[in-house]
Amino acid sequence: MYLCTMIVGVVDYGMGNLHSINRKLHILDVSFKQIKNPDDISDCDKVILPGVGHFGRAMQKLYDQNLVECLNEHALLKKKPILGICLGMQLMTEFSEEGNVKGLGWIKSKIVKFQVEDPHKFKIPHVGWNTVTSENSKLLDSQVNEFYFVHSYYAQLPDEIIVVHTSQYDKEFISGFEKDNIFGVQYHPEKSHNQGIELLKKFIDL
Predict the structure, then answer these.
(1) Count of structural domains, the chain
(2) What is the residue-wise DSSP string for 50-63?
(3) Coil, strand, or helix at residue 133?
(4) Domain holding 58: CATH number?
(5) pLDDT score recorded for residue 5
(6) pLDDT confidence of residue 2
């Protein structure tokens, strides 16, 4: 059981899979709250930024709810741990082709759409279980892991030396990154059974 003073904030901006994330946090017996405005984040030790949908609309919703500045403060100034999931991970980068808009800019990478050579074999979106590999990861127990994916866009190799997770779908792509207190995963730990729970536990234990 985690200390009662530990609070995990889950960003609620209308584009996240909150039910599944909340269920996993209940299993882990950790205190958590929804972040809908800047005041909600002030007492959070860690933050999860989920996301499902369109990059451009997601950024607009973060601005509409005045969440960008407080997320920047949490991640860049206070340097508290933050985990981006799927679209939430993509929002941490500098730019996305989906909407042609700027992201939060925490990671020197941009988001591009899958271009596959054989569209009959490799359907877009990429949906289903896939292998994730990484070295020196704080989130993954081993170098080979299985997680659930649903996405049409992915992050290009970051223009900086950081820990990355990689997966294979037609070609190798970046399926996660770790930079100091900033963590992003393209896959869905909240839909990935025991391995997903273990990843979330590792993030909470940081």
Answers:
(1) 1
(2) ---S-HHHHHHHHH
(3) strand
(4) 3.40.50.880
(5) 73
(6) 52
- Give residues with Cβ within 8 angstroms of 92, minimum separation 6: 49, 84, 103, 104, 106, 107, 182, 184
Please state, as a whole number, how many other Cβ atoms lie within 10 Å of the Cβ of residue 190: 25
CA-wise closest residue to 39 among 73, 15, 6: 73
Residue 163, C-beta contacts closer than 8 angstroms, at least 6 positions apart: 134, 135, 136, 137, 138, 177, 178, 179
Task: Please indicate, yes or no, whether the overall pTM of this predicted structure exceeds 0.85.
Answer: yes
Active site residues: 86, 188, 190
The answer as to whether 2 is a domain residue is: no
State whether residue 26 is helix, strand or coil.
helix
Residue 1 lies in a domain: no
Report how far apart the first and last C-alpha atoms of the chain are (Å, whole number): 15
Are residues 155 and 177 in contact, defined by beta-carbon separation less than 8 angstroms? yes
- The pLDDT value recorded for residue 143 is 76
Domain that holds residue 98: 7-205
